[in-house]
Amino acid sequence: MSQEPDWKTNLRSLEKQKLTLMAIKDGHVLFHSNRPGMEPLVELLESNMNNLVGTTVVARVLGLAAAKLLLWQHVMRIDALAASRPAQDLLRPSGITVNAQVPVPRIHEPGKKLPCRFERLAVKYDHPEEFYHFLRNEVLIFAP
User: Fold this and answer.
1) On the CB side of 124, how many CA atoms lie within 13 Å of its CA?
2) In terms of Cα–Cα distance, which of 97, 94, 93 is closest to 83?
3) pLDDT value of position 18
4) pLDDT per 10-residue tile (average), the chain, 144 residues
5) What's the chain look like in SS3?
6) pLDDT of residue 144
7) How high is the pLDDT of residue 62?
8) Any idea where the domains of the chain sit in the sequence?
9) In what order do the strands lie in the sheet with 56-62?
10) What letters, b where the CB count within 10 A reaches 16 and e where it falls short, cover 72-86?
């Protein structure tokens, strides 16, 4: 089995390839996307549901919404350019390693002072699976 690259190498790779999300498992890239927002994460879950145990997820931004969904799927590690305090607080007791280049108090809507809408939605759901289905069916409108 290949050793996973260190988190700083993962972040450099993410930036060099101009990606927003990447998933690595057993030394191989399982998924990558350059699209913004939550859609790439939902796509990752759609294509790899219940197969993310032991995976390293590399993201530009880790907010509470993404943290909740990745916790549900039992990923091993998350490397992020920026990670919100609520996301880190949620993941800390789980044993999932979180490496953040820049810890931030919260994720905001681009160019605004409002908290990110996905962060606001995530707090309304106690169960990550319900949150996932809400995002998939009501917000991002993925075909069933």
Assistant:
1) 10
2) 97
3) 98
4) 73 97 95 93 93 96 96 97 96 95 89 84 92 84 53
5) CCCCCCHHHHHHHHHHCCCCEEEEECCEEEEEECCCCCHHHHHHHHHHCCCCCCCEEEEEEECHHHHHHHHHCCCCEEEEEEEEHHHHHHHHHHCCEEEEEEEECCCECCCCCCECHHHHHHCCCCCHHHHHHHHHHHHCCCCC
6) 47
7) 97
8) 7-139
9) 28-33, 21-25, 56-62, 77-84, 97-104
10) bbebbbbbbbbbbeb
Token look-up 């759901």 returns: 125
Among all chains, which residue has been given the structure tokens 């759609």? 46
Burial label for 130, CB within 10 Å (0-12, 13-18, 19+), is exposed
Handedness of CA 50, 14, 66, 45 (dihedral sign): negative
User: What was the pLDDT predicted at 142?
Assistant: 56
- Written as six digits, the tokens of 129 are 């699976």
* Residues 47 and 40: beta-carbon distance below 8 Å: no
- The partner residues of 102 in beta bridges, in order of sequence, read 82
Fold of 7-139: Cytidine Deaminase; domain 2 (3.40.140)
pLDDT at 108: 83
